[in-house]
Description:
The complex is a heterodimer. By secondary structure, chain A is mainly α. Chain A is built from 32 helices and no strands. Chain B folds into 2 domains: 2-107, UreE, C-terminal domain (Alpha-Beta Plaits, 2-Layer Sandwich), CATH 3.30.70; 113-410, Rossmann fold (3-Layer(aba) Sandwich). Chain B has helices spanning 2-14, 33-45, 67-76, 85-96, 127-135, 144-148, 173-176, 180-195, 201-217, 227-237, 246-249, 257-260, 290-293, 312-317, 397-407, and strands spanning 21-24, 50-54, 60-64, 81-83, 103-107, 113-116, 140-142, 157-160, 221-225, 300-303, 324-326, 335-336, 345-349, 355-363, 366-371. In chain B, strands 6, 7, 8, 9, 10, 11, 12, 13, 14 and 15 form a 10-stranded mixed sheet that branches. A 5-stranded antiparallel sheet of chain B has the order 4-1-3-2-5, sandwiched between helices. Chain B starts with a helix and ends in an 11-residue tail after the last helix.
Amino acid sequence: MVKRAFLIFIISVPFAFTQQDLVNRFLLAQNFEQSGEFQKAKQIYEELYGDIPSNLQYFDALNRVYLQLKEYDNSISIIESRLKINGNDINLYGLLGKTYYMKGEENKAFDTWDKAIQKFPGNQLNCRTIANYAIERRSFEKAIEYLYKGKKVADDPGMFSYDLAGIYSLTMRFKDAAREYCEIISSNSNQYQVVESRILSYIKKPDALSQTIDVVKESREKNIVAIDYLLARLYMEDGRFEEAFEIYLEADKTQKNEGSDLYNFANFAYSEKQFELAARVYNELVERHPNSPFVSPAKLGYAKTLEETLNREAAVNDNSWKPFYKIKIIDNVNIEKAITSYSELVNQYPRSEIASEALLRIGRILLYKQYDNLYAEKYFNRIVKEYPVSKFVFDAYCELANINILGNDFASAEKDLLKVINNKGVGEEKINLARYELAKVNFYRGDFSSAKNLLREILNNLKDNIANDAIELSLLLNTTLNDSSNLLLFARGDLMTTRGEYKEASAIFGEIASDERSFVLRYRARLKEVETELALDNYERSISILQEILDEKEQNIYADKALYLLGRIYQYGMKDDTKALEMYESLLAKFPNSLYLDMTREEIIKIRNKVS
Amino acid sequence: MFRKTILVLILSCISSFSQSKILIYMDLTQADHLKAYGITFHALTNGIKADWLLNYRGGSFMIDYSDKIAVECRIEGVSFDIISSSEAVTIYAEVQDEGNNMDVVRLEKAPRIAVFVPPGFQPWDDAVTLALEYAKVPYDKIWNDEILRGDLKNYDWLHLHHEDFTGQYGKFYASFSNAQWYIDQQMQYENGAKKNGFKKVSDMMKAVSLTIKNYIAQGGFLFAMCSATDSYDISLAAKDVDICATMFDGDAADPNAQEKLDFSNTLAFENFKLEMNPYVYEYSDIDIQPLEIGNFDNDYFTLFEFSAKYDPVPTMLTQDHVNVIRGFMGQTTLFRKELIKKSVITLAERNGTDQVKYIHGNFGRGTFTFYGGHDPEDYQHAVGDPPTDLTLYKNSPGYRLILNNILFPAATKKKQKT
């Protein structure tokens, strides 16, 4: 037994040493290869392969290094010799074709690959293997040919369709790609999400969308709802919302998803500012699926779309170029529709955040679109009383403060605003807004020092949106405090302006402007007079006052603003672009350091673009 | 003799001084340096001659007064003075005084500008197009197809930015080979090569490089930035050798590629060593590496001062309101001094280092200018970064160097003073 073991040891030791030597040499060659010393690597690989031609690792390494050294004939030689031993190895045919291709003999490469596939008919895996070699050489046409062959004999053609579609989209053959994708979801609608995401990944490329739509349209078949969804999704990408809606309506009849597709579509249409369509979709959902969990958000969505329609209507008569203007009262029928929708939500979902938001929105519509303060106040008060923990309660307090300011009830306005200011959970931005409103309340009632203190608090954070307004009011107070009687009058004029009583405001500002003892405030009041006259559409009067300001030249610190305003009156009010250009160019020439330069340049460019 | 010359020059100018002039000063008081180039360019486009007052108040422009130009300056926010003819004479006399390192260069005709960019390109990924768009200087976009069919003859000035002339797709393979934009870009190049009858993209790019070289030889002005600088010269050196790894052109690079490079073909660089590793984001050792730059806070480069009267071209190219400028990186950031050919003029470098930022040279009847880095106001511009908003950098000295290049071809050639 011992003898036998010793004998085995004696025999196996040299063999083990030989094995270790081969491994070491192979590792050395690999190191040479990695460091780019291909000749040295080749030498060792050739020796190793010569010693053990059956070793696949040596063969691979040697072939690789031949290709690196562009020794294509050597590569062909070892592959062919290996093929003689192992003629059924499809990879060897792939490799042989690859070498021919790299050598520049494309036809020979294709012949080799074609023969390989002919040799193993009916083997879909071989088709895929050879197709991968063709893809690696970026010979996409050939790859498509092989994949089609594979697809014909495959049990699961979808596997090949993904590959084919991928190559088609890469080579910008979008119609062909779409055909493959349609085939996939026709046979397995569970693949819809994957297919949709793949198509959307390239749909922005030139022509991709139109070509894909054409094919998907052709592929619509009965009972394959996934194709319909795909087409609707593509229509949405193309902005063809109505056509998409029709498809969703049809699909909704057959699907049992409680209108979730309709809801998502409506939200998409809303985000794309297709408000009328969104309203119709929300409505449809509510009618078709009255017990769906999507009904309450759909109703809120519907009401919001109606409100957005109102905003759009208001924007048609846009006077926003004026410093002060009233939104024109719009069609009462539409307002009524929006309010009714919100009211229904309040009734149907009492004590909910949806109801609270609906009340706030009704109040705002009444306050800002119908100027019905009393009626609006009721809604804001309901939020304060019935929804004290709602996130909308502080908005309601701010709106109540506004109403109280308009009604001259400064004490109540202060109370409302303090509710917001003293609640730390509200958020800094809302608190600063309330502080600014309270500063204005103090300004209106002549308590300038309290107003200044509040403004100082806001200015601790200059990044806040309201900071600019706070600076402006602060500047007014700081520079004109010694002219307190006129400042009080000015505050009154400002309050009149807030209330939309422009005629009265204009008279007050005119009075201050004519007081020659008032220094800074006089100039400022004159400009305010213009602004309120503009709100009354008195262009001639506005122009005449502005001309007087301009005649004072540098003596009037608002001369540049006056010129800018003149430009805007001509441009937007009187539609006289030539005259407007004249004013703007004059501003640029006379006031090279004005704050209005950038805005003036923008207006000039706007007019020029319009002309060209 | 010298006094006579000055007198003759002044008298000859007087005839054209019957009217006042617009002086667009370019020193630190200028509100918008970049748009000033656009104003001058438009004046030339409209047949109005302009004078470039080299080294006078930061390289100012003097244009015959017209209401239109004055209005344009105001609209664009470009500072200027309206000066009388006698004030203009005084300025010309000061500029042409032999004692001052200044000179006047007459700008005659707006050059026709082409920018080499692929179809579908967005202007924010190229500092030059950003500057041209901002200054409202018109330009055409051209690509390989146009160059190969001979369209370059229609242009005076060609700009290359960060396109790769070696056919290695910017050497982004390691980081971005799976990114959709990379895949699309490769496809676009391959289709282009096929369409133009080339088997490989690298072969097409070599042909493009040679066409551009011929364009320069025949009098064209080439301005390249970022990786277009070194990749262009590398492609010329590799005219007869395959330097691209398998993933770029389907076959291995020539193992002896380095030895086979022909530096006599290049414009600016020689004796450089190629970076043959396809996974390394670098073409060669021409580019200075971030580690060599050191602390980014200390990355500034200095413009050389040239004699305006004896070296007007380098003087034009280095007109600026400051002479020390904040550095900026790119795929190619700075050039290694020892690899720059002796015939090439260094316009700017990092003081006390072997790192050169800005170079210029002649080839045939034309010139080339290479400027390292990607975006002068975005220190490290990465793929996908948002565009630089030039309204925030109206006085960028780094961008001014780009715009010097577009006006320089408009200059009338003067006889060299000897």
